[in-house]
Write a structure and sequence with these properties.
heterodimer, A: 2 domains, globular, B: 293 residues, Rossmann fold, 10 helices, 14 strands, 34% helix
Chain lengths: 524, 293
């Protein structure tokens, strides 16, 4: 009979492999990008950039880019650490809170296995996942010729980020339920830590704030830069403390319940329950609020950094030349920066749509759709409700994002017309029909993996479009990415023909899938 | 003439090479409560999901009041209670009932409130806070409130306490009295025996019997404990000895009683006790032996 440890690993093994794959791919891309950019000599051009507060805020602080590892640390670590810690938080709530929500813990904690033992086994599985990730990343660096000490510190940074995210998830799983809320709380804390790090790095006066964020501790260790291994002590110690706190909390509550129980009973509110269309909005409104809050924070930070970035970029000819080589010359002007930002936002907005639409597959697989579909609701109306509300939601969120981005730019001292920002964000939405078509197709034909597959495909597509041209990948390969058809609007005209073909494919596939969804066997 | 509320005709469903339901033909009339029995994995839930239009038949058809299962008209005339109610955990009981009612288009609010009271349901609680039995009550209230002409109930009382089971039985009887057709899949044989006039039995995806409980009893036979010395029923038509008793034998009599009583007349019988077959006996006789029927 499999032990709890084995059962927990079974739940995490696929996503662990995917996460290791993402980390290795990102590192490999970083190493290659460094080589393509002329190595250490090529990086001389952007040396002044490293001290710029805006760049430091976005990419983290580093003193030189003398090695490929340093370049990866500077260019990729922000994304990698954030991704790894968020995954840690989500995974921790998955194997603890979700298991309790579904009642599987009731079985696990019977017999000779205590509740605390199961929790420690979850801790062990998450710790092992972190170590695996660190070993894989380290092996790739060593294979590429990096120094072992530097590599070890970088790998430790990844491990610490994953462990901290996981430990936050474990604590959150004790405090709140259901799992969706626990994940949101843990991920929000991770995001808050990243914002603290960004604010700290944005000015020399606020550098001390880094001590309040585990991202700051990891950055202080300076894997490929200055070595401060002691900076890791809190980054490795805090997860242990948090895991102990989680263990302490689990002993104070009932299995299946969180410590903080709120509002299990309330006055019924029948607003938005009158039709499948409004119900789709009601079901997703909390997630919408969370996403919009994230967009507001991100857009303000990006808007606020615009002035500092373009001032530096436009006054350093070497950097202008480098941006030219990378195809980002337009970003030395405010409007260009915002246009570039618009294409970056396209990915985030696409992910928002993915989360919105693929909730349909989650509902179907959990059996929630059986009763409504058996009692009057048309599958086509239901699907239409999801698509229409999703479209309205993403349009409104984009509008709010544009407004806050403009506000950030204004506060930073730059001047940009709101209409230009709106055009940039509007351009980011031109992939919407394709993304919706893709999601509907996955819900209809592959509901079990709809969210993961859509996320995987769009992430790969985004990386292809971002790095393919820089790394001289074949044109046909880059052309497979939907993001390849986005232009830097309003500096450039949209690629209407490319977008028409792409969205046409999305619509046709989406319609065929919708037809399938209305006719096929319902899973559940 | 109005169409049959629920009509399943040669309904067949294959999942790849697995035959889930094979050639099932079954009608449920208005005002009829039909029991639907079968061991685990026999195809009961699949049959119900076919009747609801949630699954597409491989062949055959299911119709509600003459409309193909899954069509707008069919869905508008059906209410369904699954064995394990999974709905939106953040909604309260009342919100869920209200939402499901809105899908049906109309609702009898007074009857809804009455049912909430009869089932002793706290409608202000979120579904995530309900026990299994209370989630079941939410689905039951929503189904009965809809007053749909056809009720498909898949083990609807799993998780209900005996008091609530009694309330459920009353509601089903009231529904039948109003002319609603009810197909009740259940493992609680006492409940089926109480509520159903007819019973459909399914095994390995095939319908093995559709009959009234009285007819099934006569088919399975009645057991008699016969007291006396040197009793012999060898060669008596329809009579088989089931077991020896300290003061006689237990026999099972299937079909006409005349040969049995004639045999009794010829022997020194000192006592006779009859045991009418319960639905459980009938169920076991159908499913205990692999090739019994």
């Amino acid at each position: 009979m499999p032990r709890p440890h084995t059962l927990l690993w079974r739940q995490l093994r696929t996503s662990t492999v995917v996460m290791i794959g993402i980390v290795l791919l990102s590192i490999e891309i970083g190493i290659r990008a460094y080589a393509v950019s002329g190595g250490a000599r090529g990086m001389v051009a952007i040396a002044p950039l490293l001290q710029n507060p805006a760049v430091a805020a976005l990419e983290g602080r580093i003193s030189s880019l003398a090695s490929a590892g340093a370049f990866v640390e500077w260019k990729m670590a922000t994304f990698l650490l954030l991704a790894v810690s968020t995954w840690g938080a989500i995974s921790a709530t998955r194997i603890t809170r979700l298991a309790e929500d579904e009642g599987t813990w009731d079985q696990l904690v019977l017999g000779t296995t205590s509740r605390a033992a199961v929790l420690w086994q979850a801790v062990a599985v998450l710790a092992e996942a972190g170590l695996l990730l660190g070993v894989a990343a380290g092996a790739l660096f060593v294979a590429s010729g990096a120094r072992v000490v530097d590599t070890l510190l970088f790998a430790l940074g990844l491990v610490a980020a994953l462990w901290t995210g996981a430990a936050l998830g474990l604590v959150s799983a004790q405090l709140v339920a259901p799992r969706r809320v626990a994940s949101q709380v843990a991920s929000s804390v991770v995001m808050a830590m990243e914002l603290i790090r960004i604010a700290a790095d944005a000015s020399t006066h606020t550098l001390a704030w880094r001590n309040a964020s585990f991202f700051g501790w990891i950055e202080d260790a300076g894997a490929f830069d200055h070595h401060h291994p002691f900076a890791f002590l809190p980054a490795l110690g805090v997860p242990l403390v948090l895991a102990t706190v989680a263990w302490g909390l689990q002993g104070r509550r009932d299995v299946g319940r969180a410590l903080w129980v709120h509002g299990d009973e309330r006055r019924p509110a029948t607003r938005l329950l009158g039709s499948p269309l409004t119900f789709a909005l009601r079901e997703r409104r909390t997630n919408w609020q969370v996403w919009t809050a994230g967009f507001v924070l991100l857009s303000f930070v990006v808007g606020y950094l615009t002035h500092a970035l373009i001032t530096l970029a436009s006054t350093d000819p070497k950097f202008v030349a480098l941006l030219d080589r990378w195809g980002f010359s337009a970003m030395i002007r405010g409007i260009g920066f915002v246009a570039g930002t618009g294409t970056q936002f396209s990915f985030a907005l696409a992910m928002f749509v993915v989360a919105w639409v693929t909730q349909l597959a989650t509902d179907e697989l959990s059996g929630r759709l059986d009763t409504p579909f058996a009692s009057g609701a048309r599958r086509s109306t239901w699907l239409l409700g999801v698509i229409v509300t999703g479209t309205v939601a993403v349009l409104l969120t984009a509008l709010v994002t544009a407004g806050v981005l403009w506000l950030g730019v204004e506060v930073s001292g730059s001047v940009l017309a709101f209409s230009s920002i709106l055009e940039a964000l509007g351009s980011a939405l031109t992939l919407l029909p394709f993304v919706i078509g893709l999601c509907v197709a996955l819900c209809a034909w592959f509901p079990r993996g709809a969210f993961a597959t859509a996320t995987g495909l769009l992430s790969t597509g985004f990386l292809l479009a971002l790095l393919g041209p820089v790394l001289h990948w074949p044109h046909w390969l880059v052309g497979l990415s939907p993001f390849h058809y986005l232009r830097m609007v309003p500096l450039q005209s949209p690629d209407w023909s490319g977008l028409a073909v792409l969205n046409g494919v999305g619509l046709v596939v989406g319609l065929a899938a919708a037809l399938t969804f209305t006719r096929r066997n319902l899973r559940g | 003439m109005s169409a049959t509320p629920l009509a399943l005709t040669s309904l067949t469903k294959h999942f790849g090479t697995t035959v889930a339901v094979q050639d099932v033909t079954l009608n449920v009339a208005a005002g009829e409560v039909m029991g639907f029995l079968g061991p685990n994995g026999a195809g009961k839930t699949t049959t119900l999901r076919l009747a609801l239009g949630l699954l597409r038949p491989t062949s055959g058809s299911a119709a509600v009041l003459g409309h193909p299962a899954g069509s707008d008209e069919a869905r508008a005339n059906v209410a369904y209670v699954p064995g394990d109610v999974t709905l939106w955990p953040q909604l309260t009981g009342e919100e869920t009932i209200s939402f499901l009612a809105s899908l049906h288009g109309s609702t009898d609010e007074r009857y809804r409130d009455e049912l909430i009271e009869r089932f002793e349901l706290n409608p202000r609680k979120r579904l995530r806070a309900y026990s299994k039995g209370n989630r079941q009550k939410v689905a039951l209230v929503a189904a009965f409130t809809s007053r749909a002409p056809v009720l498909l109930l898949d083990e609807p009382t799993s998780g209900l306490d005996p008091l609530m089971e009694r309330v459920f039985r009353t509601c089903v009887r009231e529904a039948a009295d109003r002319g609603q057709a009810v197909l009740l899949s259940s493992h609680i044989l006492g409940e089926v025996e109480h509520l159903c006039s007819d019973v459909a039995m399914i095994r390995g995806g095939r319908l093995v019997s559709v009959a009234s409980i009285a007819e099934l009893r006569s088919r399975v036979g009645t057991a008699y404990d016969v007291a006396g010395d040197d009793l012999d029923f060898t060669g008596v038509d329809g009579v088989s000895v089931v077991m020896s008793l300290p003061d006689g034998v237990r026999v099972k009599v299937v079909g006409s009683l005349a040969p049995f009583f004639a045999a009794l007349n010829r022997q020194a019988v000192t006592g006779l006790t009859s045991h009418e077959s319960s639905l459980e006996d009938i169920f076991l006789s159908f499913y205990d032996e692999p090739a019994a029927h």
